Amino acid sequence: MARADRPALMVAATDGPPSAEPAPRAVGAQPPTGQKPPVAQEPAAAQEPAAAQEPAAAQEPAAAQEPPVAQEPAEERKPQAAEPEPRAVEAARRAVEAVWRIESARIVGALARYTGDFALAEDVAQEAVAEALVSWAREGAPDNPVGWLLATARRRAIDSFRRRSARDDRYAALAGQLTEGEAATGAVTPAGHADELPWDPDRIDDDILALMFVACHPVLAPEARVALTLRTVGGLSSEEIARAFLVPVPTVQARITRAKKTIAAAKVPFEVPPAQERRERLGGVLSVLYVIFTEGATATAGDDLLRPDLAYEAIRLARMLAAVLPGEPEVYGLLALFELTAARFPARTGPDGEAVLLEHQDRRLWDRSAIRRGLAAFGTAAKTGLGPYGLQAGIAACHARAASVGETDWDHIVLLYEALGRIAPSPVVELNRAVAVAMASGPQLALEIVDELVATDRLPGSHLLPGVRGELLIRLGRIAEARNELELAARLCRNVRERAVLLRKAEALG
């Protein structure tokens, strides 16, 4: 189990809420400022005056009329050669970014199915995006931007296959016309079929699902799964991923490149796993989304407590997964956990970004819309029994329903942690159970649980364990010991905001 569920006594500082996921920007681009000169005018401008001046020999002195022909079209071509205005460039960038963030999973998924080559699909999709930035700045965004990207990427894929083998069967299949219409292959929407989608609507869910399973394949290292999922399914750039995880851009690029090579070398098929494998493999997909959200909800390191953009991206991907797997309760359990946890984001930090403990949060700032969405998803997950993510969502639901820390049903939270410890045991789950026990039954029993974790060295190097132990010792009146534990926790903590909370508490003890 990943470290998302932080102990509430400390994580009271770090435990908290979001506002609803930002709506994607509308797709659109500024129209071109000037109209492109019609090509037909160039020869007309050159020949008609000549015919008027020398009607008897309009054709023979064509050479005499060459200079005007060369000059006039040259002047007319100047607007074509001119660089697009900055406004048009920015409009194109916004349009491409919006389309890519919303539709990247469908685009890459459709291309991967067409080409049978995951790495090639991702590469040609990126090339199409680069071409769109230039073309749309000059000509404006097309009526069907997704179809444009698919058609462009498809042409790049065909060129790639041409280079590999001029006449192989795969090239013939890709280049051929489909009887049901070009749009189904990613080409421009045919005239008279404006409503036709640039992919087979019966295959969209399969494409997205297959893309997620490939990006989260167990053959890949955990960090590679996260990077590849955010890149291919989430549509994030290498720069955005690097910024979110505080690693150099070349590191992210190398992870993605290695991941694609590994997938190719392992001959991972682009397909949804068979039913008997799907449940087992689904756990890997959920785990990747869980890691992404956890890092957004409480950053491991850096100056900010939260990285909301990363957390909201995990929520968006979880919603997408729930839409294509409506019969999987754990998908809804994960989505419920994300929504309910993110609902507290607005109250988790103060005006200067400082962490605000759960007991001090203004619950009026909690996002009620996110809470309603989370409780609805939790209700769906609970219909057929709760798994690890559903149980964590149940704990988050207890916090969401309570008017204050004192009115929280801590006894029920203890039971949920005990159940979670049985099906997904981990030292972090046990530490969280200790916090709940302290709130329900007092600090002494909780300290015994924590001391057992210390004795068995099950959380080495973690600031969470001394942080919780320090809180319990404060409540037991053992001030000198508590200060030492809090100072140790501060030394181990890599997040500036969390460290500041621990140091303030230690200083307050004198």
What does this molecule look like?
The protein is an all-alpha fold and 510 residues long. It has 23 helices and no strands. The chain has helices at 8-14, 41-53, 66-81, 86-115, 118-139, 145-164, 169-175, 204-215, 222-233, 238-245, 249-265, 275-297, 308-324, 329-342, 345-348, 368-382, 388-401, 410-423, 427-441, 443-455, 464-475, 479-492, 496-508. α6 runs antiparallel to α7, α10 crosses α11 and α18 (410-423) packs antiparallel against α19. The chain is elongated and about 75 Å long. Mean pLDDT is 79; it is low at 1-14, 16-78 and 177-204.
List the helices and strands and how they pair.
Blueprint: H1 8-14, H2 41-53, H3 66-81, H4 86-115, H5 118-139, H6 145-164, H7 169-175, H8 204-215, H9 222-233, H10 238-245, H11 249-265, H12 275-297, H13 308-324, H14 329-342, H15 345-348, H16 368-382, H17 388-401, H18 410-423, H19 427-441, H20 443-455, H21 464-475, H22 479-492, H23 496-508
